[in-house]
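Example record used in the benchmark description.
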Amino acid sequence: MEKHILIDFSGKFQFETIEFLLGQAKEKLSILEIKIGLRKKIVNILIECLENIYKYTKFGIEGDYSNINFFSKISLEKTNDSFIIKAGNTILNSDIEKLKNKIEKVNALNREGLQKFYQEIINDGKISDKGSAGLGIIDIAMKSGKPIVFNFTPKNEKNSFYEIKIEISENIN
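Model output (structure tokens):
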């Protein structure tokens, strides 16, 4: 399988990083002459991943995350017939179970189930202590049309490195 890396970033994450990486991704997708609908899906998923990393980076400065050696990474690759987004960041071990359960639930749902789950969360109106309603994972699954691959790699007794891999097929509707 042939693979081309379009963006690849790891390290300290700042708000300006989002703008820079999105600009790079848009430019490279444009050069590849990717259809506008597919390009929008890729960029929207990338935005969700970047916003998630940024939120956790922000928590790295305050609260329970303030004593963590925070690390993040994100990449966008083009393979023969799909695009792969890989994103990762440091999280507290206490957050793993809830996140794992949510991703597993989302992966088990079909498109109609995802839409229903999305509506339930919107109608519920609850916002987490991290400032989100938890719609990002659902949105990623709906846009990619494929299960989200995820992994937690323990760093120490307090935190782990959380990674997700999202595949977006060029033939997506």
